[in-house]
Design brief:
two-stranded antiparallel sheet; 2 helices
Length: 72
Amino acid sequence: MNVGRMLIVAGAVLIAAGLLWSFGARLPFKPGQLPGDIVVRGRNSTFYFPIATSILLSILVTLVLWLVNRTR
C-alpha cells in the first residue's frame, strides 16, 4: 500500500475515534461499558477487563483493514 493511502486511512480512523470520543456520552451504549465487560470492585482496588469492547474493536478493525485491502 502506498504511503498516501495509508495516511488517508490513518486520518479517517483518527477522525472516527475523535467523533466517538466527543459524542460517546450521547450514544445508546457506552464504549468501554458494554454488557460482557468484566468489572470486579474490591475494597481497595478495581479490576476491569473490557472483553466485549475488545471483541467489538477487533471486529471493526478487521472490517476496516479488509475494506482497505480489498481496494488494492
